[in-house]
Amino acid sequence: MTKIATFNVNGVNGRLPVLLRWLAEARPDVVCLQELKAPDEKFPVKALEAAGYGAIWHGQKSWNGVAILAHGAEPVETRRGLPGDPDDTHSRYIEAAVNGVLIGGLYLPNGNPWPGKKFEYKLRWFERLKAHAAELLTTGAPVVLAGDYNVMPTDIDVYAPDRWQDDALFRIEVREAYAALMAQGWTDALRELHPGEQIFTFWDYLRARWPRNAGLRIDHLLLSPSMAPRLRQAEVDRHVRGWEKASDHAPVWIVLDD
């Protein structure tokens, strides 16, 4: 069995105790991290090595940043940044081979406010992701695309859908882009094993949204066709959101047959 997780840590150094506590508790084999909010030289590689994890990372000062961790192994980097825009300086995509599986770790742009340049950038980034995802499928390799997609795919993925219609995480253009990505042949692991169930992965710090369970499902693990039959579990460690100094996201993980 292989356990693969995604976790938007919302600052890898400020929340390092939370991350290390969760790694020791959950013992995932592979983890995709988002929102490192740290330049490359500030990534806590020594602390993660001491916890048993090899790592690759693509950092950025103050915001963005992605990483892939592997327990007892060194991820073999295959890509850093999405193709299609050489002028894009955001650290939002990293890819590695880990134990025979290709892992793409991503942090899709938020896109707010709508309308505006940030929303347009989000849609352009989504198009680049779709193009690269299609290329990955042509290889026939086992692939997992994991991360913070900043998309609630359907009404059940948001606590009050009527209030979110003009938000960049729920605009129809964004949901259609996600649906088009899925139509390539990917499987949304959490939804596959929990059809019709309202599950959240993010709760804003504002307006008591965590105590009220007013959440969003925006963190997803997508499986290529050869990986989907291996899916055995898919869950959210929602209790982690209740820890002291927690991220506003909870870790999401899957278990695959080897």
Automatic annotation (TrEMBL):
Pfam families: Exo_endo_phos. Its EC number is 3.1.11.2. One of its GO terms (molecular function) is DNA binding. Probably binds two magnesium or manganese ions per subunit. Gene3D superfamilies: Endonuclease/exonuclease/phosphatase. The record marks H249 as: Interaction with DNA substrate. Mg(2+) binds at N8, E35, D148, N150, D248, H249. Residues 5-249 form the Endonuclease/exonuclease/phosphatase domain. The record marks D219 as: Important for catalytic activity. SUPFAM superfamilies: DNase I-like (SSF56219). The active site is at Y107, D148 (proton donor/acceptor), H249 (proton acceptor). Belongs to the DNA repair enzymes AP/ExoA family. This is Exodeoxyribonuclease III.
